[in-house]
Amino acid sequence: MLYWLTELSDGGDVFNLFRYITFRAGGAFLTALIFGFLFGLPLINVLRKTQGKGQPIRSDGPEGHAVKAGTPTMGGLLIIGAVMTSTLLWARLDNAFVLMVLFVTASYAAIGFADDYAKVSKQNTKGVSGRTRLLLGFLIAGIAGAWAALYHPAELTNQLAFPVFKDTLLNLGFLFVPFCIIVIVGSANAVNLTDGLDGLAIMPVMIAAGTLGIIAYAVGRTDFTEYLDVHYVPGTGEILIFTAGIVGGGLGFLWYNAPPAAVFMGDTGSLALGGALGAIAVATKHELVLAIVGGLFVVEALSVIIQVLYFKRTGKRVFLMAPIHHHYEKKGWAEPTIVIRFWIIALILAIIGLATLKVR
C-alpha cells in the first residue's frame, strides 16, 4: 500500500526509499513486531474469557502437559494478523506471488481456526475431521500451484529445479500442480505436528521464513541470479516483505509463548504458517530446498509416519511417543532443553539450505 508513495518521488527524496524492497521489508518487520506487542495481551485476555477451559489437553500425552490445562489457544491470530497487516501495508499488492502467498496463508488460517474452535467449543481434541481438513487443504494448494505456474517464466513453467545441480530441470508437466499440493499440504501439516511444546514451532518457522525470504529476494534479482547461477523468477523479491512480517510477528508471539506459554499458537497459526512456507517454496522454485531449510519439520512428520506404519505392521513402537519431541520428553529431557536444541538444529539446517544457493 505504501509503495504508491513512490509516485510522489522525484528520485532524490525520502519517498524514493519506498522503491527498495529491503527498506519496506524492514518496515514490515517493525510493523509486525509492534502489532504483536500492542495486541498480544488484549487478544490473550479475550481468548481466556471466551474459551473458558482453554485448549483441551490430550489424555494420552506426556504427564507434564497436565499443567498446561486452561491455556487458551488460537494465538496464531496474533501472528497472522501481524503478517497480514504488515504485508498489506508495505508490499506491492499488484504482485502475483505476494497475493498467492497471502491467499494460502489466510485460507489455511481459516481451516485452522475452524479446527481450534471445534476443539474448544466441544472440549475434545478431535476438532474438524482430518478428511475435511485435507480435502480443503488440497483444494487451496492446488489453486496456489496453478497460480504459481501461471506467473512463472515460460522456461520454468511446470519445471522442478534442483539445488546444487543448477542446470538441471525436470519437466513435471501436468504433475506440477499435484506436486505443489504435496509440498504445501505437507509443509502445513509438518509445522502443525511440530507445534507441541511452548515455543517449539515458532522459532524454526521464523528461521525458515527468514531463509526463504533471502532466497526469494535473490531469485527475484537478475544480478544475484547471474552471480549465484540460479533460476530467475521475476517478482519473487517482494516475498521478502511477507517473510519479514512473519519474523516480526513471530517474535511478538514468542514474547507470550515462551515457557510457560500464556497462549498456544493452535492450528490457526501452525497450518497457516506451514502452508505459507510451502507456497513460498513453490513460488521461488525452491521446493526441494524447503526440505532442507525445514528439515526439522520433515523429521517431526516422518517420526509420526514411521510410528504409525511400524505399529500397524508389528504392533510395536519405534519411538516412545510421536512426534519425536514427545519421545525426548518421555526420555526425561526437560521441555526447554528440547525446544532450544531443536532451535539450534533448525538454524543449522537453514544455513545448509542457504549454502545451496552458492554450491554448484
Automatic annotation (TrEMBL):
GO molecular function: metal ion binding; phospho-N-acetylmuramoyl-pentapeptide-transferase activity; UDP-N-acetylmuramoyl-L-alanyl-D-glutamyl-meso-2,6-diaminopimelyl-D-alanyl-D-alanine:undecaprenyl-phosphate transferase activity
UniProt entry keywords in alphabetical sequence: Cell cycle, Cell division, Cell membrane, Cell shape, Cell wall biogenesis/degradation, Magnesium, Membrane, Metal-binding, Peptidoglycan synthesis, Transferase, Transmembrane, Transmembrane helix
Keyword RNA-binding in record: no
Residues reported in the UniProt entry to bind Mg(2+): 192, 267
Cofactor: Mg(2+)
Example of a GO biological process term: cell wall organization
Protein's name according to its UniProt entry: Phospho-N-acetylmuramoyl-pentapeptide-transferase
Organism: Allosediminivita pacifica
